[in-house]
């Protein structure tokens, strides 16, 4: 008896012919995709919570989605379960979770008080998130990038953009007054983060950090991570505000470091390049 569902191949290869055997997909390939879908559910739930004015729970949902976004890719690589389907699903989920959802949350929170300009700012942020993700996917296979380029993002990544763009909400929850002036400031700030996402600012990615941990640093690392998440759970508004400000403050440092590495790399290439006398035949 034939299955009512078409055969699924995570790599997008052609389907087997009619009557052919249907292979099985390993669970290790499906598991990262399930984590991505869970992140998507969390992000969409944040929209509902924002509409219901349960803003703190909405923030928790978007932070949880960001954590899951950092887990699914690493889980796929650890399980050797990467696939084309997973990459496409992750990109689409990132656009919804870190493009559409923060824009809607900001609009429901206070950008609507700025009238049509508030909606334009929300649209601009979502569009910039889509453009940033599209550029990221295109640049993955760039053969000309320097070896250290993997340590940096071109522009701030979508998850970081989502966490940072919500800073006005964190500050209001801490106690800052909310009004039409704060809505206008939030509008300008939203546009600034949107342009940072599509800019060429090199933002340190941290991808190479933590691949190997010294044995004597394992226990201190556990303690630091546990303390951080305990603080995040106990004082989420303050921790998110401080982390956002630190991240933005470190962008110039990341840029200077990238430029120094680029200068050294170009000098190394120039020194290794053959001179004209070496190229011309004798």
UniProtKB/TrEMBL annotation:
Main localization, broad class: membrane
Ranges in coiled-coil conformation: none
Molecular functions (GO terms): CDP-diacylglycerol-serine O-phosphatidyltransferase activity
Membrane topology: Multi-pass membrane protein
Taxonomy, superkingdom: Bacteria
InterPro entries, per the entry: CDP-alcohol_PTase-I, CDP-diaglyc--ser_O-PTrfase, CDP-OH_P_trans, CDP-OH_P_trans_C, CDP-OH_PTrfase_TM_dom, CDP_ALCOHOL_P_TRANSF_CS
Transmembrane segments: 25-49, 55-71, 92-111, 117-140, 152-171, 183-205, 217-233
Domain CDP-alcohol phosphatidyltransferase C-terminal: from-to ranges: 217-252
EC numbers, comma separated: 2.7.8.8
Gene3D superfamilies in UniProt: 1.20.120.1760
Locations listed in the record: Endomembrane system
Keywords per UniProt: Lipid biosynthesis, Lipid metabolism, Membrane, Phospholipid biosynthesis, Phospholipid metabolism, Transferase, Transmembrane, Transmembrane helix
Record field: catalytic activity: a CDP-1,2-diacyl-sn-glycerol + L-serine = a 1,2-diacyl-sn-glycero-3-phospho-L-serine + CMP + H(+)
Entry's family note: Belongs to the CDP-alcohol phosphatidyltransferase class-I family.
Protein name: CDP-diacylglycerol--serine O-phosphatidyltransferase
Lineage, opening ranks: Bacteria, Pseudomonadati, Pseudomonadota, Alphaproteobacteria, Hyphomicrobiales
Gene: pssA
């Amino acid at each position: 008896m034939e299955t009512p569902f078409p055969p699924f191949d995570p790599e997008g290869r052609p389907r087997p012919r009619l009557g052919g055997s249907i292979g099985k997909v390993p669970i290790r390939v499906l598991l990262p995709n399930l984590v991505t879908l869970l992140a998507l559910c969390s992000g969409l739930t944040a929209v509902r919570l924002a509409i219901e004015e349960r803003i703190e729970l909405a923030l928790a949902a978007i932070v949880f989605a960001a954590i899951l976004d950092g887990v699914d890719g690493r889980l796929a690589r650890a399980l050797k379960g990467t696939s084309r389907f997973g990459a496409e699903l992750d990109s689409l989920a990132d656009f919804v979770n870190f493009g559409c959802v923060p824009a809607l949350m900001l609009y429901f929170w206070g950008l609507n008080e700025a009238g049509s300009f508030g909606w334009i700012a929300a649209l601009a942020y979502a569009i910039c998130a889509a453009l940033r993700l599209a550029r990221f996917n295109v640049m993955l296979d760039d053969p000309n990038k320097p070896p250290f380029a993997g340590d940096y993002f071109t522009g701030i990544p979508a998850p970081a953009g989502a966490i940072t763009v919500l800073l006005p909400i964190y500050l209001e929850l801490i106690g800052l007054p909310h009004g039409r002036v704060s809505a206008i400031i939030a509008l300008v700030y939203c546009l600034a983060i949107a342009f940072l996402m599509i800019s060429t600012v090199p933002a340190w990615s941290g991808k190479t950090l933590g691949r190997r941990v010294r044995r004597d640093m394992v226990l201190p690392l556990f303690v630091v991570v546990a303390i951080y998440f305990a603080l995040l759970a106990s004082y989420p508004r303050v921790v998110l505000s401080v982390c956002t400000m630190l991240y933005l403050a470190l962008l110039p440092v990341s840029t200077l470091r990238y430029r120094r590495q680029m200068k050294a790399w170009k000098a190394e290439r120039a020194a290794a390049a053959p001179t004209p006398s070496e190229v011309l035949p004798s």
